[in-house]
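Input structure tokens:
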């Protein structure tokens, strides 16, 4: 009987359905309000570009919406937990369930099950939708909302060092040997670091080695003269490997893509602690939806008539928000090397799992 967390099928469905509906309602409210506030600040920038109109504003909303859903789903689960349990407590339903012989864990079991489902949905949504939205929106913002790039995985404002020289471009698109730079500038510098000449071109492609600039023009500093060069090859030290390694954006890559990026960086001798922490957090982050019912459970127990219901709800909310603060702090410390990546991503989850379980057992079991 101690392991029978779902003694009543009807009660389980009732609680899970009530909880899920409140999660959706709270999430929709938060996303709509925050999206409206965000559009107030961004609509002017979008419409300032010639040719942009309502379609582009809706395009921005469709890209920004998934980001807000992913960010505020755990908060929605926390608030839905407090609302659900507080209403059950206020209507004496918790007392009725406990009088029927249910323990606090059995009352919370349907909510925890719903949290597991939400965690799975959140993980799949992040992998399939949010990563693509992040990549597209970042690329669109890099061109100041002029046009949604055909290759969202490309990057804007890139630069590479070739010894003393500098190779810059406004955008990099394509993969591997098919990588193409647009609006390219190559600075040739002397031993003192002073610019000797500047070469500009609209387009550059990989020449193996170096990069072939099409219809390039040259400005020589010493003579202050410009001339046309045609097609030339520059920056032989800038390899495809350097270009690929510079593409890593954890929020815009799926779990498998980020794994390959980490392996590439490690093989090149680069530091990957920040990326490894983000990799683990892609798993531990969605699981916070399982943790929220446990942290907010304090709002559902105790006598509603004692006047402590509001205080219990505040305590549950404080525990939930404390988790998010410590989780972000641990992730930041892991990015700077203060914690190992695995501990930075998982320590807050297990810490508050023990805290929530301790509070529940000490107060209700």
């Amino acid at each position: 009987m101690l392991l029978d967390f779902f003694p009543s099928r009807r009660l389980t469905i009732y609680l899970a359905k009530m909880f899920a509906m409140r999660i959706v309602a709270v999430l929709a409210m938060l996303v709509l309000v925050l999206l409206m506030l965000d559009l107030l600040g961004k609509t002017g920038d979008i419409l300032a570009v010639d040719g942009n109109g309502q379609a582009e504003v809706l395009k921005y909303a469709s890209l920004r919406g998934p980001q807000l859903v992913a960010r505020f789903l755990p908060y929605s689960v926390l608030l839905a937990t407090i609302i659900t349990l507080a209403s059950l407590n206020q209507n004496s339903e918790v007392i009725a369930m406990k009088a029927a012989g249910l323990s606090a864990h059995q009352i919370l079991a349907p909510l925890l099950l719903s949290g597991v489902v939400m965690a799975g949905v959140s993980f799949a949504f992040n992998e399939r939708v949010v990563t693509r939205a992040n990549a597209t929106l970042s690329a669109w913002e890099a061109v100041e909302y002029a046009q949604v790039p055909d290759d969202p995985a490309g990057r804007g404002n890139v630069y590479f060092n070739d010894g003393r020289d500098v190779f810059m471009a406004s955008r990099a698109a394509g993969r591997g040997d098919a990588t193409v730079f647009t609006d390219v500038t190559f600075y040739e510098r002397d031993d003192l670091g002073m610019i000797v000449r500047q070469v500009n071109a609209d387009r550059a492609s990989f020449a193996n080695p170096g990069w072939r600039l099409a219809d390039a023009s040259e400005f020589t500093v010493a003579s202050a003269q410009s001339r046309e060069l045609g097609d030339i090859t520059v920056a032989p030290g800038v390899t495809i490997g350097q270009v690929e390694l510079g593409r890593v954006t954890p929020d815009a890559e799926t779990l498998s893509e980020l794994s390959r990026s980490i392996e590439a960086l490690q093989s090149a001798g680069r530091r990957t602690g920040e990326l490894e922490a983000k990799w683990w957090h892609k798993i531990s982050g969605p699981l916070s939806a399982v943790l929220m019912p446990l942290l907010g459970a304090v709002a559902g127990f105790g006598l509603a008539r004692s006047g402590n219901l509001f205080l219990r709800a505040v305590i549950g909310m404080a525990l939930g928000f404390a988790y998010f603060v410590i989780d972000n702090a641990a992730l930041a410390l892991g990015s700077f090397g203060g914690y190992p990546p695995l501990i930075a991503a998982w320590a807050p989850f297990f810490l508050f799992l023990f805290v929530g379980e301790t509070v529940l057992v000490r107060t209700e079991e």
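The chain has two domains: 9-145+277-364, 155-239. The longest strand covers residues 195-206.
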